What we know:
Elements: H1 4-33, H2 37-64, H3 76-106, H4 110-141
Helix pairs in contact: 1-2, 1-4, 3-4
Amino acid sequence: MFSEExxxxxxxxxxxxxxxxxxxxxxxxxxxxxxxxGPHKLCMLTATALSAIFLTSYLIxxxxxxxxxxxxxxxxxxxxxxxxxxxxxxxAVNLPLVVMTLTRALKGDLERHRKLARITxxxxxxxxxxxxxxxxxxxxxxxxx
Length: 145
């Protein structure tokens, strides 16, 4: 269904999407601290859209491609697996949190949105940043030979 060339591009796309989401989350946080709700909303909706594209790309890749084993040795293995395990667990927790936080904002329930966003934002940022780190460790810093 998908060519190997297309599938081999997806990890780079996924790392790039996570990097963009990370930047948008930080920008969105700064904007709301400055009480710039309109630009904040744009950043957060864009981060949500890019996260949805990431999830779609990630699922396509892993549906067609077996899990990639981490080739690093020594200190890098426990570091990689610690980051990966916390990333995966928090990513699973993050999805419903993002949906609930976004829903509250779009419904105008800003007080409940703010309370939940204080939990969602650091988890989402951690997931996005560690997604970039996992990509770099797996495909750039310790690539399989």
